[in-house]
Design goal:
heterodimer, A: 129 residues, alpha/beta, globular, disordered C terminus, B: Transcription Regulator spoIIAA, 2 domains, 11 helices
Chain lengths: 129, 293
């Protein structure tokens, strides 16, 4: 069975979803990721969905769930690189993912995680001076 | 029944009649048209005469080949000319009846000729009249139809242009986009606004988007919901939205309708929103010379 790789980058975990998500793959990712957070004691999770072109309500909820689970395990989650079409679909589905932090790309997401780790106050993906 | 040979015979007569009395018919036709359509401002008389003569010629040719059945391929040329004529008329601003009277004005001169030809043959007169009427009616209907289609085409194009024109996304600063919305927001427009904004966010890598609603006349629950959808979609992509240009009346309406805009930053003016956007990006401005009062 195909698997979504979870890479470790310092204190963060990097998940790049490059295949079309189906429900079983999503459940497996949820299992793997929670396990990985516990094992590696990661402080942040970055999920890159820039290659994801199709989402349904299940995948949308799964993203929200992963963010909530990570928070319980003391890791921040940032979802980055969402395609415009995907964003529109999620909004039309009524999923605003209000508990999930978002950033434009991996770069901005990393910055966001880094600054939240440093304890500085972060709002909307950028610093407030 | 022997309708088909009869029609063919009669139509040949119609063609004959036109050939024999072309000048008379043309002159009468022009006179008729002048009485019903006084649009010297839109079309020159010489031009109109040329069109009439042309069409009469095409009509004659078609009648000789296929008789008065307007759907026959032999009538293609005549139909094409009639179609072009209606389209041009529609664009020039003729009314539908003025356009259709191009065809219907030909009735009297044609019928006069038919009546003269069948002076001593009531049956022949009746059937020939019927054939001619049917033909002219078919042409008239066709004219009206093309006219209508041409007008609808114009309306559709204008709507599209309006939609395109009214949703520009402008870049105010590196990382700051502005979307001035002018006009009422409905579902179709929201879709376009949302798509163009999100596309621009990806292209310019912007972190803050300002939606300016100074030009939106009213905000009801539907418009507010559309705005919130756009804000949420932008947030999902990692950009932050500010709504600016909220006029006093609109602020009152929003509160009276019980719309919750608590999660969205709102500002009264575009400049205030821009200041917030720059602050979020960590950009500061310093005045070099003291302000003169």
């Amino acid at each position: 069975m195909e698997k979504i790789p979870i890479l470790r980058m310092g204190e963060f975990l990097l998940v790049t979803i490059q295949v079309d998500m189906h429900d079983r793959l999503a459940m497996a990712l949820q299992d793997d990721l929670t396990h990985m957070i516990t094992v590696s004691e990661a402080k942040g999770v970055l999920i890159d969905i820039s290659s994801l072109e199709i989402v349904d309500s299940f995948i949308g909820r799964m993203l929200a769930n992963i963010a909530a689970m990570s928070r319980v395990l003391d890791a921040e989650t940032v979802v980055v690189g969402m395609q415009p079409a995907v964003a529109i679909t999620l909004v039309e589905l009524g999923l605003s993912l209000s508990g999930v932090r978002t950033a434009l790309n991996v770069d901005a997401g990393m910055e966001l995680l880094q600054s939240s780790l440093n304890g500085s106050k972060v709002l909307y993906g950028s610093h407030i001076d | 029944m022997n309708t088909i040979p009869m029609t063919t015979k009669k139509s040949t007569t119609l063609a004959q009649l036109i050939t024999e009395n072309e000048d008379f018919i043309l002159a009468e036709w022009m006179r008729e048209m002048k009485d019903s359509v006084r649009r010297g401002d839109l079309i020159k008389e010489s031009e109109l005469r040329g069109e009439c003569a042309n069409f009469l010629q095409l009509m004659k040719d078609a009648l000789e080949v296929a008789g008065p059945s307007f759907q026959n391929p032999a009538w293609d040329k005549a139909r094409e000319m009639l179609g072009d004529l209606s389209r041009t008329r529609a664009k020039q601003g003729f009314t539908p009846s003025e356009t259709a009277s191009f065809v219907f004005s030909a009735k009297r001169p044609l019928f006069t000729q038919v009546r003269q030809h069948y002076k001593n043959d009531p049956d022949g007169l009746a059937s020939e009249m019927w054939a001619a009427t049917e033909l002219l009616d078919a042409m008239g209907l066709y004219t009206a139809e093309v006219y209508q289609t041409a007008r609808e085409e114009v309306i559709r194009r204008q709507q599209e242009e309006l939609l395109e024109l009214s949703t520009p996304v402008v870049k105010l600063w590196d990382g700051v986009l502005a979307l001035p919305i002018i006009g009422t927001l409905d579902s179709a427009r929201t879709q376009i606004v949302m798509e163009s904004l999100l596309q621009a966010i990806v292209q310019t890598n912007s972190r803050v988007a300002i939606i300016d609603i100074t030009g939106v006349p009213t905000v009801d629950t539907v418009v507010a919901q559309h705005l919130l959808k756009t804000v949420t979609a932008a947030r999902l992509m990692g950009a932050d939205c500010i709504i600016s240009g909220v006029r006093p009346q609109i602020a009152q309406t929003i509160v009276h309708l019980g719309i919750n805009l608590m999660d969205v930053t709102t500002k009264a003016t575009l400049s205030a929103a821009f200041a917030v956007a720059l602050q979020r990006l960590g950009v500061t401005f310093v005045r070099e010379t003291p302000q003169k009062r």
